[in-house]
Each structure stands twice: as structure tokens, then as C-alpha cells.
Design a protein that fits this description.
Layout (H helix, E strand, L loop, with lengths): L1 E3 L5 E3 L11 H12 L5 E2 H8 L8 H19 L17 E5 L2 E5 L6 H11 L8 H9 L13 H28 L7 H15 L4 H17 L13 H12 L6 E4 L6 H11 L8 E5 L11 H11 L11 H12 L4 E8 L2 H4 L9 E7 L2 H11 L2 E4 L5 H14 L6 H4 L2 H10 L4 H14 L3 H12 L5 H11 L3 H9 L7 E2 L1 H8 L3 H13 L4 E4 L2 E3 L2 H12 L3 H21 L4 H20 L3 H10 L1 H7 L3 H18 L2 H17 L3 H14 L6 H17 L3 H18 L3 H17 L3 H14 L8 H15 L3 H18 L2 H17 L3 H17 L5 H11 L1
Parallel strand pairs: 6-9, 6-10, 7-8, 8-9
Antiparallel strand pairs: 1-2, 3-5, 4-5, 11-13, 12-13
Helix pairs in contact: 1-3, 4-5, 5-6, 5-7, 6-7, 6-8, 7-8, 11-12, 15-17, 15-18, 17-19, 18-20, 19-20, 21-23, 22-23, 22-25, 25-26, 25-27, 26-27, 26-29, 27-29, 27-30, 29-30, 30-31, 30-32, 31-32, 32-33, 32-34, 33-34, 34-35, 34-36, 35-36, 36-37, 37-38, 38-39, 39-40
């Protein structure tokens, strides 16, 4: 087993696959012991950490129960093998042992990412011959987010998190120093240093040393031809930036249209200008990648509007369905705000026009290369055209020399020896930065003469390719067979961003090998780093990969897609709170489901759709995408004739429709699912779905139908001798439904019965939900003080379990109770806390803001 604490708490098996996570207390126990691996941690300290400084009277006995549970977990991860007598007998395992009045976790330090990180950083302090940069890069790649996120103990995170974060930032600064000191010796080190420094400066903008290092690294990268993600390729772009400045100053509501051929650097220039002129847009900058050149994969105006509206704080439940209605809402939300909207890679005026707010204070910057785009936007919207031409031949040759020399340690020498051939080569590239960079990388990685490479490129161009397409093909030819195969298979993946796990799944190779292949593709400039551990493909590479993938045998395509669908489903199932993964993967889910359906991978499609349901629910946004994914999964289940899968997906669809406040449709879907449930023989699946379907019926105003369904579920759980938490969940839903129809007294009795059932399950998140249900019933019954006590207990439980949704509900509810009790200052404090959390989640709550303002007036 591997324990990962440098980011969201994560358990993995020895092959890197995610394992199910235990409850918060056991996560806290594992994290505390893993941080002090090999050392005895007193039981008194552990109880303080597990209960955040307020252990109950029975904390010692409860701790022993959690220790037993963790030991079972460790044994299960070791395939049930009993603990070895010593670490020497089982060097790869992790074992929890009792030592005096405390406990210790024994195992190899590399089994815990914190200790591996510290070992690599210490090794980087070695002799000059040590590859310090490589060690530091490997160490920093272990970080996936804030240290100890979700570890189950706020106290432990507060104690150890700052120390670990400080060590991370020290390693980042050392990596930058290595990148600056070893110029030309470590191709690819500078982009990592820049990415890590950007994260550091964003987290700690007051850290002057980091800002200074970032400036030096960016300057060095531009001068040497290394290209950190998001930076413009050439140093001589000051004239273009000045043109953008002048055009923006007189735009007066007209869109600016930055045009040019693929690979000229439109996106890089637009983003560089946006970053440098951020102070002109105090109300925000928002970017949408329209993928206008990707044909059927281009983003529709409605989908692009949804992205912008969410970024601008629109309420998800009120998001209109129609393009015209969304465009009108965009106009209202942007009125009077000084904003920049960057619409990247537009394919047509029809794709862009609904996204134009038409306010003089909102600047819209569009990039694209279609002639019709320019003509139509200029004619119909008065767009200001800003054509971006290729760099001068001498500048293109300098880039070629810099990129070619970066891989050989003596910049430009290979190009300097053949000036005429170099001039011909960049001319064949149309002097476009992307194509020139690809050819420089080809010289750096594959060797050969400039003249021979120019001849090869000329041969490809003779078939009618433009400079960028020809350079992509020539760069591809030089790849090792396995790297070329993997890059071709990425053409099956609709997502713009990939990681090593995606590539491993597509190629059917181990994750370490996938990382090696990605490194080779980065060196060839066919793949770009878009952040630590994340990789993107330039548009022309992505499109060429899709063409090659489409020509593969159907069986090979289906096998690769099946592995990718399975990998994503496993990730979603094993970590229902994997928000970082979900944010990256979500935009591609529907397209991947479509690709799976086209290859008859229906079992994989419905499994992915169902696994992502809880993530969509927790996300609380992109509800239209959730609905579509649920419909895709349902269609797949119906094609298979799998009744249980069909029930699961119809249940998910009902929940998505309720979340979108489409109650009539939701009730129809739920009623049909309830009728079909009798044909499902897996009783646990059936009861779980019926419980959720009852919630959908209740939310849709059909409370008595929901009550009848839940009474059946409770009876079924009791007849089967179901475990206490499952029965308690059914009782909780039944209580909610009774509250809705005005039978609060009956509902309270069911809630109290459910609480009694989970009394011996203190780590079950249901503890908070049940206490909140109790508070709601007590409020209806007029027992307001008791309701406040119950709701405060629910708030404490929500905090222990990291349940943000319940925390927001209880804070809002507590504020309302306190206002009713005539305690406005306490009520305002609750609502301010709730608003702060809404803001931190990126989801403002205007209704709550209005209530708070009214209270404070």
C-alpha cells in the first residue's frame, strides 16, 4: 500500500491504483502515523488529533477500535497476508504495531509520499555530479494539491500542513536555481520550474524571492527558445502587444479579432497580453476554448455561454436552456463590469456572436484563422481585425537554432553550420513558430543534417500540406514506435489535457513507462506541459492524432477506449471526492461516452456515467452536462438489457433533473423507475435506488408516493437484516418526506430511531444528516431552542466529515433560527460564515446576501 498526503488523502496499491478510503477518523489515524513513520505516537496525542482537541470520554476505547479497523485495511491491501514478524521479512508492507502506550506504523519510507519527497530533496543536496534538478522535479511531481487535504483531522492539517508547504516552496526555488545554473544541460527543466514558480507566486505573492526567480526564468526561457506553457514563443512581440493596446483603447464594445494561420502564436500572444494588462480588467478575465477548428468537436455557443455564465456567478439552477436566453443573461451579468472575454480558436461568426455582450466596458478578444470568420465579424459586428503574420526569416532561424541547440548543449551550432539549409527549412515551415519549434526539436532529438530534414519536409509539403501540418507529420515520423503509437491513441481521447494515467490506459502500458513516453513527446514538442503532471497537445497535433486514430483497426480502437473508460470509472468510484480529477475530466465525459457507445462499449459507458453521478452532485454545477451523461448511460444500459444498470441510471437522471428544477420531468422519470424496480433482483441495489427515487418524488411534490416507496424500503431492509446504517438512511429519507407533508411528529420519531441505529457508528457521515433532519422537525413543531441545539450538533458533524454541502445548509439554518429567537448578531455571524464558504467555493449566494443585508439594516 502507498499513503499519499501531499494533496488529497489517497491510498493506492503497489500498482498505483486508487483504493477505497476509510472514514475520517481512520484517515486521521493513518495520516498521523504515516507522518511519524517508524516512530511511536502516544495514544493521548492520537486521540487529540482524531477528535481535533476535544476527545470524548470513551476516546481510548474508540481509538482501539479504529486501530483494529486500520489493521484490517492494511491486511486487505496485502491480499490478506498476516503481518510479517519484522520489516525485513516484509519490506514492502505497512504494519501498525502497539508500542507501550502508543502505536507506530512500520514500513519502507517510500510507501509514504511525504517521506519520499523529503528523501529526494535531501538527495538533491549531494555532490555536483548529482542530477539535482531531476531529483527536485521528481519530488515536486508528488504534490497534487494542499498537503493533508481531506486527512480527517483539521488539527493535524493545521500543525503539519504549513511545514510541508514550506518544504515544497523551498524545493521549488531550488529547482529554479538549478534550471538557471544548468543552462542548456537539462532540456525540459525550465518549463517545470516556471510552472512551479507560478503556483508559488500565486499562493504567496508577498514572497519576493520567488517573484524574482520567476522573472529570471521567464527571461531565460524566452531568450533560449524554451517555451513555458502559456508564454509567447518569440521575444520580439512588443510591436504586437502595442497594436493590441492601441486597438483595446478604442474598441468601444467592438470585438478585437486576432487572426493568422495555425501555429503562428495567436493564443500565446492573446494570453500574454491578457496577463500583462490584467490591471485593466479589475472585474475579471474569462477564457473559453471554442475549438472551432475541431469540426464536430467544436464547442457550441450554448455550451460556451454556460462556461462564461458559471464563471460570472450565475445560479446553476436558474441557467436557461436556450442559447438566446443564455446570451441575454450574459448581457445582464456583464453590464457595468470591466471584463475581458477571451474567445480562443473560433471557427465562425455564428459561434462567436451569441457570446458578445455588447457593452463598451467589456472587451472581447477573439482568436481564429477562418477567412469567413474575419469577413462576417467585421461586416456584422464591426470587429477590429488584427492579423498576426509569421516572424521574419532571421527570427525564425534564431528560434530553430535555440530549440535545436537546447537538446545538444551547444545552442545553435547544428544550425549555424548550414545557414542556407536552415533558411530553406524555416521557409518550408512558413516561418510559423509551432512548425519551426517542431523541426528544431527533431534536430535536437533525432540528429541528422538540416539539409536532409529540409528535404524530408519538402517531400511532405509536395503532397499539399501546409507548413504546420507537414512539420507535425515529420516530427511524428522520428518518434520511437511505442511513443508514436501512444500519441496516435491519444487521438481517441476527447479531453484537451492528459496525464500519465490516461496515457497508460490508452496504451496498455504501466504508468512509469507512460511517463517516460510523455517525456519523449515533450522533447519532440508534440506534447506540451500544461501544469505539474498534466500535458496538452497543440491543436494541429490533436487533429492529426485523431485522423491517425480513426484509421486504426476497430478492435484496437475499442480496446484502448475500453481501458480509458475503465480507468476513469475506477477513479470516480474509488474517490468520490476526487474534485481535482473531476474538474479536469468533466468537460470530456460526454464526448468519451459518445465514443464508447460508437464502439459498442455499453457496459463501460454506463459504469462511467453512474460513477460520475456523485461527483456531479457534489460539484453542484454543470447540471446540464450531468443530465446528458445520465441519459447516455441510461441508453447504454438499455442497449445491454441490464435491468439493474437501467435502474441506477434512471435514478441518476431523476436526481439531475431535480437539481435542474425540472420537477415534472423528474417525477415522470422517477415513477417509471419505481415501477421497473420490481424486476431488479439485486435487493441492495433496488433499495438504494428506491431510496434516492423517493427523494426525487418528494422534491417534485409527490410526497405521499415517496412515503409509500420508503416504507417498502424500510420493511425490506428490516426483513433482510440489513446493516444499521442502511436502514437508518432509509428512515432518514422517510422522515424528510413526512416533514414535507406536514407530519413532523412522525418524522421526528423515525429520525430518532435512525439515530439510535447509528449510535455505534460515530464515523458515519449520516450522523450529521440525521441531526439536521431532527433540527428541521423540531423547528416545524415550534421547539426552536431544541432545533438550534440539534442543528449545531449537525454542523459539528459536518465539519468532522468535511461535508461542505451540509455545513452550508446548517449555517443558513442556524442563522434563520437565531433570527427567529431575536439574536440578530449571532444570526449575522452564521450567515457571514456561510457567505465566506460560498465565496471560497466559487458559488456566490445572492439570496443569502440579501437576507444578511436586511438583517444588518
Amino acid at each position: 500500500m502507498r499513503i499519499n498526503l501531499l494533496g488529497r488523502f489517497e491510498l493506492q496499491d503497489d500498482h498505483g491504483r486508487a483504493l477505497p478510503k476509510p472514514g475520517p477518523k481512520r484517515r486521521a489515524l493513518l495520516a498521523a502515523l504515516a507522518l511519524d513513520l517508524g516512530r511511536t505516537v502516544p495514544a493521548e496525542r492520537l486521540t487529540g488529533l482524531l477528535w481535533d482537541g476535544a476527545p470524548p470520554a470513551n476516546a481510548r476505547s474508540a481509538l482501539q477500535g479504529h486501530v483494529t479497523g486500520v489493521r484490517r485495511l492494511l491486511m486487505a491491501a496485502a491480499d490478506g497476508a498476516p503481518p510479517a514478524g519484522s520489516i525485513a521479512e516484509d519490506p514492502d508492507g505497512l504494519h501498525l504495531v502497539t508500542r507501550g502506550a502508543g502505536y507506530a506504523l512500520l514500513g519502507h519510507p517510500d510507501a509514504v509520499d511525504v517521506h519520499r519527497f523529503e528523501r529526494l530533496c535531501a538527495a538533491a543536496q549531494g555532490e555536483p555530479a548529482v542530477d539535482a534538478g531531476g531529483l527536485l522535479r521528481t519530488a515536486l511531481a508528488l504534490w497534487r494539491g494542499p498537503a493533508l487535504d481531506g486527512c480527517g483531522s483539521g488539527r493535524l492539517a493545521a500543525e503539519a500542513g504549513p511545514r510541508l508547504t514550506a518544504a515544497r516552496w523551498r524545493a521549488v526555488e531550488r529547482l529554479a536555481v538549478e534550471a538557471l545554473a544548468r543552462r542548456g544541460e537539462e532540456g525540459g527543466l525550465m518549463p517545470d520550474a516556471v510552472d512551479e514558480l507560478k503556483a508559488l507566486v500565486a499562493a504567496e505573492p508577498w514572497r519576493g524571492s520567488a517573484a524574482a526567480l520567476l522573472a529570471r526564468c521567464l527571461e531565460r526561457a524566452r531568450a533560449s527558445g524554451e517555451r513555458p506553457s502559456g508564454t509567447f514563443e518569440f521575444t520580439g512581440c512588443s510591436g504586437e502587444l502595442a497594436r493590441l493596446d492601441a486597438a483595446a483603447a478604442t474598441a468601444d464594445g467592438r470585438p478585437l479579432l486576432l487572426t493568422g494561420p495555425a501555429g503562428v502564436g495567436k493564443t500565446g500572444l492573446a494570453r500574454a497580453w491578457a496577463e500583462r494588462r490584467a490591471d485593466r480588467f479589475p472585474d475579471g478575465r474569462h477564457t473559453v476554448d471554442l475549438r472551432g477548428e475541431d469540426g464536430a468537436a467544436a464547442v457550441t455557443p450554448a455550451a460556451a455561454l454556460a462556461v462564461l455564465l458559471r464563471d460570472l456567478g450565475a445560479d446553476e439552477g436558474e441557467l436557461p436552456d436556450g442559447t438566446a436566453e443564455r446570451a441575454a443573461l450574459l448581457g445582464r451579468l456583464t453590464s457595468g463590469r470591466r471584463l475581458l472575454l477571451l474567445l480562443d480558436d473560433a471557427g465562425s461568426a455564428e459561434q462567436v456572436e451569441p457570446l458578445l455582450p455588447g457593452h463598451p466596458e467589456v472587451l472581447v478578444l477573439v482568436t481564429g484563422r477562418a477567412d469567413r470568420l474575419t469577413a462576417d465579424l467585421v461586416a456584422r459586428q464591426g470587429a477590429v481585425p488584427l492579423p498576426l503574420g509569421a516572424p521574419a526569416p532571421t527570427e525564425a532561424v534564431r528560434l530553430l537554432a535555440a530549440v535545436a541547440g537546447a537538446g545538444r548543449g551547444i545552442a545553435g551550432r547544428v544550425v549555424d553550420r548550414e545557414p542556407e539549409a536552415a533558411a530553406r527549412l524555416v521557409a518550408l515551415c512558413d516561418q510559423l513558430p509551432l512548425a519551426v519549434g517542431l523541426m528544431g526539436a527533431r534536430l535536437a532529438t533525432a540528429g541528422g543534417s538540416v539539409a536532409a530534414l529540409a528535404e524530408e519536409l519538402a517531400g511532405v509539403r509536395a503532397a499539399g500540406c501546409d507548413g504546420v501540418a507537414a512539420a507535425v507529420e515529420v516530427g511524428w515520423r522520428a518518434l520511437p514506435t511505442e511513443a508514436g503509437r501512444v500519441l496516435t491513441l491519444t487521438g481517441l481521447c476527447p479531453g484537451a489535457v492528459l496525464d500519465a494515467h490516461d496515457v497508460a490506459a490508452l496504451g496498455g502500458v504501466p504508468v512509469p513507462r507512460a511517463r517516460e513516453l510523455l517525456a519523449a513527446l515533450v522533447s519532440a514538442r508534440l506534447v506540451e506541459r500544461s501544469g505539474p503532471g498534466r500535458f496538452d497537445r497543440p491543436g494541429p497535433v490533436r487533429r492529426y492524432a485523431a485522423e491517425l486514430a480513426a484509421a486504426l483497426p476497430a478492435g484496437e480502437r475499442a480496446a484502448a477506449l475500453g481501458r480509458l473508460l475503465g480507468r476513469w470509472a475506477e477513479t470516480a468510484e474509488a474517490a468520490a471526492d476526487a474534485t481535482a480529477w473531476f474538474r479536469r475530466a468533466r468537460p470530456a465525459l460526454a464526448a468519451l461516452a459518445d465514443a464508447g457507445a460508437a464502439h459498442a462499449l455499453d457496459a463501460e459507458v454506463w459504469r462511467l456515467a453512474h460513477a460520475c453521478g456523485p461527483l456531479h452532485y457534489l460539484d453542484g454545477a454543470h447540471l446540464d452536462e450531468w443530465e446528458q451523461l445520465a441519459r447516455d448511460g441510461l441508453a447504454a444500459a438499455e442497449r445491454l438489457g441490464d435491468r439493474a444498470a437501467r435502474l441506477r441510471l434512471r435514478t441518476d437522471l431523476g436526481l439531475a433533473l431535480v437539481s435542474r428544477k425540472r420537477f415534472t420531468e423528474a417525477a415522470t422519470v422517477a415513477a417509471r423507475a419505481v415501477a421497473e424496480a420490481e424486476g431488479v433482483h439485486e435487493t441492495a441495489v433496488r433499495d438504494q435506488c428506491l431510496t434516492a427515487l423517493a427523494g426525487t418524488l418528494a422534491a417534485s411534490g409527490r410526497g405521499y408516493e415517496a412515503i409509500a416507496v420508503l416504507e417498502r424500503v424500510v420493511a425490506s431492509c428490516e426483513a433482510r437484516g440489513e446493516d444499521a446504517p442502511s436502514t437508518a438512511r432509509a428512515l432518514d429519507r422517510l422522515a424528510h418526506c413526512l416533514h414535507r407533508v406536514g407530519e413532523a411528529e412522525r418524522g421526528l420519531a423515525h429520525t430518532d430511531r435512525a439515530l439510535a441505529l447509528v449510535r455505534d457508528h460515530p464515523d458515519d457521515p449520516l450522523q450529521g444528516t440525521l441531526r439536521f433532519s431532527r433540527a428541521e422537525a423540531l423547528r416545524v413543531l415550534g421547539r426552536t431552542e431544541e432545533a438550534l441545539t440539534a442543528s449545531r450538533a449537525a454542523l459539528a458533524a459536518a465539519g468532522r466529515h468535511g461535508d461542505t454541502r451540509l455545513t452550508l445548509l446548517t449555517l443558513d439554518f442556524n442563522g434563520a433560527l437565531l433570527a427567529e429567537l431575536g439574536r440578530p448578531e449571532e444570526a449575522a455571524h452564521c450567515w457571514r460564515r456561510a457567505l465566506a464558504l460560498h465565496t471560497a467555493e466559487g458559488r456566490p449566494d445572492p439570496a443569502l446576501e440579501r437576507r444578511l443585508a436586511a438583517l444588518e439594516d
